[in-house]
Amino acid sequence: MTAVHADIDALRGLHDALVRYRHAQREVAASADGQLRATRAALEAKASALRVQVALGQAEYAACLDRAAQADPDEPVDCSGYARAVATNGERLEQIQRWQQRIEAEAAEFAGIAGRFGALLAEDLPRLEDHLTAIIASLEAARRVQGAS
To answer: Closest Cα to residue 4, out of 148, 140, 145?
Structure first.
């Protein structure tokens, strides 16, 4: 095998590797987008459920306080369980909201990087692949001319 044959084969291998890389990375980028959407949706579902629990707990606590205000002083009504439940669910909701804010901040940073990477995959790599195809065609043409001589 001549050096030209080896060069052409090496360039074909590089071209094929670039094509495989581009397709694989598109799938990775799409998967990352899907994971981000799923994470956002899961956090929002938890936040929504906790908002409902907080609202219900607050209503139950208010009703208990009303009962306590109307109760016989010798038989006090204990509303501490309702108060703890409201506080606990409120803290959990705040924690989820902090996670949502963190996810959004990280997603914004990721979006810039992912956008640049997407442009590389959509524009730069196909242009490079076309350039390699042209080089390969040129080398094959040169090889045919040498073979005909």
So the answer is: 140
Mean pLDDT of 53-62: 97
- Residue 97, classed as helix, strand or coil, is helix
| pLDDT tens column, 107-128 | 998 888 888 888 888 899 999 9
Query: Could you count the other beta carbons within 10 Å of the beta carbon of residue 100?
Result: 16
How is residue 120 annotated by DSSP? Answer: I
| Secondary structure of 41-87 in HEC code, one letter for each residue | HHHHHHHHHHHHHHHHHHHHHHHHHHHHHHCCCCCCCCCHHHHHHHH
SS3 content of the chain, % helix, strand, coil (to 5): 90, 0, 10
CA distance linking residue 99 with residue 46, whole number of Å: 11
Let me know if 119 is exposed, middle or buried by CB neighbors in 10 A (0-12, 13-18, 19+): exposed
The pTM of the full predicted model, rounded to 2 decimals, is 0.67
Pair of tokens at residue 58: 């607050």
